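Dear H.,

Thanks for agreeing to be a second pair of eyes. The structure we're designing against is below in token form, covering all 127 positions.
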């Protein structure tokens, strides 16, 4: 199997033993979970779920862009929320980025996330 690592300065650098994204067989891009870290400052974006979700989605889409794709190429998203009560507010932000091409998606409530953030998002894109 051919595998290519994707890296962009426009999303946070990995903070552990993983890649931002990996293209498998030249077609499928697997994007690692993105949390709301500002890639320029390296600082965590704090605040309400809307603000955190916006940054996490933008980070994810920068990795897709670095691999030659766009939001239109995203076929599957998994979002992890620390509080499922944020679901509706998360969706309001999510729809701004995925309004025309709606990927398959799962949203899961989890007990905690890295750095205590409210949201983490991962995706698969077909390039």
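And this is the sequence the design step returned. I haven't edited it by hand at all.
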């Amino acid at each position: 199997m051919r595998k290519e690592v994707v890296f962009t300065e426009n999303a946070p650098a990995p903070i552990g033993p993983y890649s931002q994204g990996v293209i498998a067989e030249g077609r499928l891009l697997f994007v690692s979970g993105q949390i709301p870290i500002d890639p320029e400052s390296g600082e965590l974006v704090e605040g309400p779920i809307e603000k955190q979700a916006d940054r996490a989605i933008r980070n994810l889409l920068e990795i897709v862009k670095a691999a030659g794709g766009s939001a239109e190429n995203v076929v599957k998203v998994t979002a992890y929320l620390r509080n499922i009560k944020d679901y509706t507010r998360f969706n309001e932000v999510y729809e701004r980025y995925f309004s025309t091409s709606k990927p398959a998606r799962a949203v899961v409530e989890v007990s905690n996330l890295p750095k205590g953030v409210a949201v983490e998002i991962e995706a698969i894109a077909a390039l």
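Two observations from my side: The longest strand covers residues 74-81. The CA atoms of residues 50 and 90 lie 6 Å apart.

Warmly,
E.
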